[in-house]
Amino acid sequence: MSSGEEIDIRNLWEEYRNKKPFRQGYFIGEESGKYYVAKNEEEVYELSPLVYYIWLISDGEHTLEQLADQMCKDINVELDQVVEPLVLAINSLNKVELVKFV
Q1: What is the pLDDT of residue 92?
Q2: How far apart are CA 75 and CA 55, in angstroms?
Q3: Using CA atoms, how far apart are residues 53 and 56, in angstroms rounded to an integer?
Q4: Which residues pair with 45 in a beta bridge?
Q5: Share of the chain above pLDDT 70, in %
Q6: What is the rounded distance in angstroms from the CA atom of residue 67 to the CA atom of residue 58?
Q7: What is the pLDDT of residue 7?
Q8: For the segment 24-48, what is each residue's pLDDT rounded down to a tens digit?
Q9: What domains can you pick out in the chain, each with its CATH number?
Q10: Which InterPro entries would you find in this protein's record (predicted)?
Q11: Which of 5, 23, 29, 68 lies in the 20 to 30 Å Cα band around 11?
């Protein structure tokens, strides 16, 4: 990623934290630690375990901040360790329309 494309995590966190991400598409399968999710018959995405987990918990019922709190409890880490990977994953999933905000 070039410096012109750098993502401002703090600003994205402030923009997304009170929004409710809702996963789109459907799970196809898992192979060798990679998870495959399809948006439709022609668009399939390979997700890392972390991104798949974030996609999976994006239920449209909870805000991103609530999901961050859930992640902290699930993996026993502090919020500041969760925000950056969560924001990057949600931003990427949103760009390819595997999550939308409701």
Answers
A1: 96
A2: 16
A3: 5
A4: 37
A5: 94
A6: 8
A7: 78
A8: 999 999 999 999 999 999 999 999 9
A9: 21-100 (1.10.10.1150)
A10: PqqD_sf
A11: 23
Alpha-helix runs per DSSP H in 17-63: 49-57
Q: Cα 6 to chain center, whole Å?
A: 18
pLDDT for position 4: 44
Determine contact, residues 82/72, Cβ cutoff 8 Å.
yes
Q: Is 76 left (phi over 0), alpha (psi -120 to 50) or beta?
A: left
Distance, CA of 9 to CA of 22 (rounded, Å): 20
Residues contacting 12, CB < 8 A, separation 6+: 87, 91
Residue 100 tokens, joined: 């939308």
**Cβ pair 102, 63 in contact under 8 A:** no
Pair of tokens at residue 55: 């996609």
Rounded distance between C-alpha atoms, residue 68 and residue 84, angstroms: 10
Query: 């399939």: which residue's tokens?
Result: 44
Residue 66 tokens, joined: 């609530």
